[in-house]
């Protein structure tokens, strides 16, 4: 019969068994896999829902306008023309990319909100009929 090796602190349990006993795997898994808003049914304001895409759209629009100004400077100021011609289109493309990403993100959030409302409605119907 084989004797398991003792752990460094002198206790009889192996480090793996201690880890298994003391870990709260089930509760931490649920906490990390879903956000709090899924489990709680508290209503959120429009700003709480749409603040990230609004910020992305705003930054994208500002960057796009900055790129437009820099690109137009290459026409009016001949001193640093090469710098303006290189930086202007870069800011234009970056701003346009952020602007489009933010504008596409808004309908995706709306669709998720509708699906969540339908899901909550179906869950309430199911609990009403099956808990009788």
Automatic annotation (TrEMBL):
It is a multi-pass membrane protein. The keyword Transmembrane applies. Residues 17-29 have a biased composition (Polar residues). Keywords: Membrane, Transmembrane, Transmembrane helix. It holds the Pfam family PIRT. The chain crosses the membrane at residues 54-77, 89-109. Residues 1-29 are annotated as: Disordered. InterPro entries: PIRT. It comes from the Eukaryota. The keyword Magnesium does not apply. One of its GO terms (molecular function) is phosphatidylinositol bisphosphate binding. It is found in: Membrane. One of its GO terms (cellular component) is plasma membrane. This is PIRT protein. It comes from Eulacestoma nigropectus.
């Amino acid at each position: 019969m084989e004797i398991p090796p003792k752990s460094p602190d002198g206790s009889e349990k192996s480090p793996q068994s201690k880890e298994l006993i003391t870990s709260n795997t089930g509760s931490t898994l649920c906490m990390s896999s879903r956000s709090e808003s899924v489990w709680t049914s508290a209503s959120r304001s429009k700003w709480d829902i749409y603040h990230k895409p609004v910020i992305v759209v705003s930054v994208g629009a500002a960057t796009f306008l900055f790129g437009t100004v820099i690109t137009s400077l290459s026409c009016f100021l001949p001193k640093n023309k090469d710098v303006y011609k290189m930086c202007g289109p870069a800011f234009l493309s970056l701003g346009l990319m952020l602007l489009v990403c933010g504008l596409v993100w808004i309908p995706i959030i709306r669709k998720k909100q509708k699906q969540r409302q339908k899901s909550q409605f179906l869950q309430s119907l199911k609990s009403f009929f099956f808990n009788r």
